Amino acid sequence: MASAVAAGADPAGRASASAPALDLRLPPAAIAQAGAGLSADASGQPADARDPSDPALHDHAPALPPDLARVLPPSETAERAIAALPEVKERLRHIDYQSAERDRLAAGPYEWTARAVVQQRREESGGPRYREQELAIERGFRWSGKVEQDRKLGAAGVRLARNGYSDAWHEGARGLVAGWFAVLRESRAAARAAEQAAQRERAVAVIRKRVAAGDAPRIEQGLAESEAAQARSAVRAAQAKAAVARAEFARRYGIAAPAEPVPSLPEPSYDPVDIDRYIEAVLADNHEIRLAEIDAARARLMADRERAELLPDPTVGVHAGRERGGIERIVGVSVSMPIGGPARTARVSAALAEADMADERLRATRVRVVQSAYELATLANAARDSWDSLQAAAALAERNADLAERGYALGELGIGELLLARRQAIEARTAEETARVGLLETHARLLVDRHALWAPPEDEDE
């Protein structure tokens, strides 16, 4: 069955009706989307209090396509492994940090300051001495527009942290796909090498019987035994590489690698990708772009905040005192305000430049994401065509090897032709299986990038 998701389904889940021809040009729709204007609102509401790593937030995940369900770990297992990655947990803690920063910005930078003065007054002419006291309390105040701007900056920081967490999760899912298929690829290579070695051992046994019966020269036995020895060496090397890949995967993700012996690989079962629709789906829900959007909007807020600082904040206080031993009593109000200088203007210019830089980073991110999605979808279509050709070539090479074996048994072919035919069949099947693993991996990567496989936790703040 074809998987509608990998077949270029649009965001509503409708599968494309037909497969487009392979076109190496960037689709016009993708170019238009890459150059789209900025549209980010960094003044969102405070973040949802739920823990984004809560597995309950993943209940929306769709079922795996049949081909991937046979080779990938269960979604629950994979999501637990992703949530436990240090870089993902660090991003989760960053949400806590930004939440505290939001509260700090909302509270403002100023605190009440209390001041007490006790002094003694003495007249030069030798008159009486007086004890004098003064108490004062004062505090800086933000102008009302600055209070609202600080709240927006705090909310933007939380949104940035939450999307950073989702982006780290997405990268973790990509890494898990790559690591899982690396183990699968090496394990299948080891299994294939073992099968090849067994075939060559059987061939040696047949040739020994022919040599013993006088139907074949001893040189043929030597050639076959040499091939068998090389096959045994290849098995040991392939098994070592598979063991290293398994150990690396286990250390990195803490879950079991594909079971051994690795089962036979399923045939990839998805239609060619509708490239334009795939790019639209990626752009509709992409954390890299969303991060850049929030960062750009936050930079604009920072520039506005620095511009607001051109009007300094006042410090207001009240004080009361007793002078000349209580003969005089003083009650007053004080107001002070800094006199702004060129440093404030320079900070505004720097913040505006940073905002312009963030806008350019957003545009660059859009182009990069579109190009990456286009390349992945194009390579997926090309990989499917390549696998079809390799599958046909492997079947043909195996039939030729069977014919060569019968020809050798009848004395029509020599040992050289037989070994060559077998070697070609082995190489063709190995190439087909490598392409099959690559195609399955590409299928999984397409789904991960569309958030249709091991998607990041849903964020109600978005």
UniProtKB/TrEMBL annotation:
GO molecular function: efflux transmembrane transporter activity; porin activity
Gene Ontology CC: one annotated term: efflux pump complex
Name recorded for this polypeptide: TolC family protein
InterPro entries membership: OMP_efflux, TolC-like
Region described as Disordered: spans on this chain: 34-68
Biased amino acid composition, Basic and acidic residues: 48-61
The keyword Cell cycle appears for this protein: no
Main location class: membrane
KW Transcription regulation (keyword) present: no
Biased composition (Low complexity): 34-45
Entries under SUPFAM superfamilies matching the protein: Outer membrane efflux proteins (OEP)
Keywords (A to Z) from UniProt: Cell outer membrane, Membrane, Transmembrane, Transmembrane beta strand, Transport
Homology family: Belongs to the outer membrane factor (OMF) (TC 1.B.17) family.
Subcellular location(s) per record: Cell outer membrane
